[in-house]
Write a structure and sequence with these properties.
CATH topology of the largest domain: Rossmann fold
Number of helices: 13
Strand content: 15-25%
InterPro entries: AAA+_ATPase (IPR003593), DNA_repair_RadA (IPR004504), P-loop_NTPase (IPR027417), RecA_ATP-bd (IPR020588), Ribosomal_Su5_D2-typ_SF (IPR020568), Ribsml_uS5_D2-typ_fold_subgr (IPR014721), Rubredoxin_2 (IPR041166)
Protein name: DNA repair protein RadA
Pfam families: AAA_25, ChlI, Zn_ribbon_LapB
Family: Belongs to the RecA family. RadA subfamily.
Keywords: ATP-binding, DNA damage, DNA repair, DNA-binding, Hydrolase, Metal-binding, Nucleotide-binding, Stress response, Zinc, Zinc-finger
Distance between the termini: 84 Å
Radius of gyration: 27 Å
Helix content: 25-40%
Shape: globular
Number of domains: 3
C-alpha cells in the first residue's frame, strides 16, 4: 500500500509546503502551517483508479445563447451593482469591515424578495434566530416570509435545503463560521473555508438557487481565507464605508454577469439602509464654496455621474522633507500632478506640505480627477477660492497637456442638474460634446488653468503676528509664473 503523501497548508494564505516550518514563506505569518493529506480529501485530487475517461462533446464557438435569468431584488442600488438582479444558479461573495452593514443589506434584500413571492432562506452562523428577529423588527421587515436558521454544519445546511422546495435565494452569514466533516480543521481556517464554499457553490450550480456568502475581511481589506474562493464564485462585492460617515458604497470587483465599475450608494439610518438615488447631493451636502483649496470634480462611477468635492491644503513645511498625505486618491498620481505643476506651470509646491482628501470618504481611481486636483492645489497655494458654480474634469499628461476623457456630456448634464453653470474640461472633449454649456471652458494645457485661477482674483493681505517671522504665501504673479 502506498504511503499517504502529506503536505502543510498555511491557514492564512493557503500556500503549500512539503515540510513543516515555523514561518510561512509566502505571507510571513508564524505558526500557520497545518498538516493535510495531499493524496485525497479537500485540497487533493481524486484517488487513482483504473477508470478510463470519457469523451467530452465539443461545441462550436458561434451559436445562440440565452441571457442569464435574473431575479430582481427590488433594491435599485443592489440591482445596479449586480447587473439587474441575482442570476439563478450563481454564487456571490459579499465582504466588508465588521459592522459596516453587510447583514443589514442582505436582510433587507431577502425581505424584499420574500415579499414578492420568492422563497428565501437566511442562515446565520454568527447570530441566533432571536438576534436576527430583533434586527428585522428594528428595520421594519419582521413580517416578511423569510425562513431563518442558525447553523454552521455544511452537511446539515445542505440536507435542510434539499428537504423542501428549491429556494430562490440562500444567504449564508458567514462563510468563515461554516465547517464540514470532510476537513479535519477548525472553522475559519483555509481548509474549512475552501471546503465549505465549494460545497455551497456546488449546491447553487446543481439546484439553480442563488447563494450569497458573507465573508470577513482582514486588516488589509481583503476577504479572509484563500483567494481561490474569490475565483470560484461568480461575483465578489465589497461593502465599503468610513466609520465617521453615514453613507455606504457597494462596489463589484468581480462579476461574470455584469459590469465591475458600477457602485451602489446607501445611507445608514436607525431603521436600516436607505437608497441614495442621487449621491452627488450627498457628497456635496456640507460644501463650503468660499474656502480656497476646494474643487468640485465631475466623475463617473460606471454609468453613473457623481460630483464630489476634492479638498487640498498646501502649507509651509517645518520639516526637511515635506509631507504628502492623500485620502481617497492615488498618492503616486498626486506626486505626478505636483511634478507637472512645478515643471510646466512654475507653481512651486516642493517646500510645502500637501494634504489632499476626497470629501465624504469616497475613493476615486479615475485619471479624470487630475484637473480638479491641480485646481485645488493652485487654489490652496495662492489663497484664491475657485468659482462656486464650476466643475473640473480632465486627465493631465506628463507634458502638461490636458487629455480628453469619456462621457463628457453626462458629466456636464449632472453638473447642470445640480446648479453648476460652468465647467473646465479638456478642449478635445468640449469639441465632441454637442450640448456643452456656453459657460464651459476648454483648455489644452495645464498652464491655462493656472493662469485663469491667478487672473480670477487676489488673496487679501493678512496681519503678521508680532515678534514672529511671517511665512509669506506666493503672490498671484508668482503662481502664474
Amino acid at each position: 500500500m502506498a504511503k499517504a503523501k502529506l503536505q502543510f497548508i498555511c491557514q492564512n494564505c493557503g500556500a503549500a509546503s512539503p515540510r513543516w516550518q515555523g514561518r510561512c514563506e509566502s505571507c510571513g505569518e508564524w505558526n500557520t502551517l497545518v498538516e493535510e493529506n495531499a493524496a485525497g480529501g479537500i485540497g487533493g485530487g481524486p484517488a487513482r483508479s483504473g477508470r478510463k475517461g470519457r469523451v467530452v462533446p465539443l461545441e462550436p464557438l458561434h451559436g445562440e445563447s440565452a441571457e442569464a435569468p435574473r431575479v430582481p431584488t427590488g433594491i435599485a442600488e443592489l440591482d445596479r451593482v449586480t447587473g439587474g438582479g441575482f442570476v439563478r444558479g450563481s454564487a456571490l461573495l459579499v465582504g466588508g469591515d465588521p459592522g459596516i452593514g453587510k447583514s443589514t443589506l442582505l436582510l433587507q434584500a431577502s425581505a424584499a424578495l420574500a415579499e414578492r413571492g420568492q422563497r428565501v432562506i437566511y442562515i446565520s452562523g454568527e447570530e441566533a434566530v432571536a438576534q436576527v428577529r430583533l434586527r428585522a423588527e428594528r428595520m421594519g421587515v419582521a413580517r416578511a416570509p423569510v425562513a431563518l436558521a442558525a447553523e454552521t454544519s455544511v452537511e446539515d445546511i445542505l440536507t435542510t435545503l434539499e428537504a423542501g422546495p428549491r429556494p430562490a435565494l440562500v444567504i449564508v452569514d458567514s462563510v468563515q463560521t461554516l465547517w464540514t466533516e470532510q476537513a479535519d480543521s477548525a472553522p475559519g481556517t483555509v481548509t474549512q473555508v475552501r471546503a465549505s464554499a465549494q460545497a455551497m457553490i456546488r449546491y447553487a450550480k446543481q439546484s439553480g438557487a442563488t447563494v450569497v456568502l458573507v465573508g470577513h475581511v482582514t486588516k488589509d481589506g481583503q476577504i479572509a481565507g484563500p483567494r481561490v474562493v474569490e475565483h470560484m464564485v461568480d461575483a465578489v462585492l465589497y461593502f465599503e464605508g468610513e466609520g465617521g460617515h453615514h453613507f455606504r458604497i457597494l462596489r463589484a470587483v468581480k462579476n461574470r454577469f455584469g459590469a465591475t465599475d458600477e457602485i451602489g450608494v446607501f445611507e445608514m439610518t436607525g431603521s436600516g439602509l436607505r437608497e441614495v438615488p442621487n449621491p452627488s447631493e450627498l457628497f456635496l451636502g456640507e460644501r463650503n464654496a468660499s474656502s480656497p483649496g476646494a474643487a468640485v470634480f465631475a466623475g463617473m462611477e460606471g454609468t453613473r455621474p457623481v460630483l464630489v468635492e476634492i479638498q487640498a491644503l498646501v502649507a509651509p513645511s517645518p520639516l526637511g522633507t515635506p509631507r504628502r498625505a492623500v485620502v481617497g486618491w492615488d498618492s503616486g498620481r498626486l506626486a505626478m500632478v505636483i511634478a507637472v505643476l512645478e515643471s510646466h506651470c512654475g507653481v512651486r509646491l516642493g517646500p510645502n506640505d500637501v494634504y489632499l482628501a476626497v470629501a465624504g470618504g469616497l475613493k476615486i481611481a479615475e485619471p479624470a480627477a487630475d484637473l480638479a486636483v491641480a485646481a485645488a492645489l493652485v487654489s490652496s497655494l495662492s489663497g484664491i477660492a475657485l468659482p462656486a458654480d464650476c466643475v473640473y474634469f480632465g486627465e493631465v499628461s506628463l507634458s502638461g497637456a490636458v487629455r480628453p476623457v469619456v462621457h463628457a456630456a453626462q458629466r456636464l448634464k449632472e453638473a447642470q442638474k445640480l446648479g453648476f453653470a460652468r465647467a473646465v474640461l479638456p478642449a478635445a472633449s468640449m469639441d465632441k460634446t454637442t450640448n456643452a454649456d456656453p459657460g464651459s471652458q476648454g483648455i489644452s494645457q495645464l498652464a491655462e488653468l493656472v493662469a485663469s485661477i491667478a487672473a480670477s482674483g487676489s488673496r487679501p493681505a493678512q496681519k503678521a503676528v508680532p515678534d514672529e517671522p511671517v511665512r509669506r504665501r506666493p503672490t498671484v504673479a508668482e503662481v502664474a509664473d
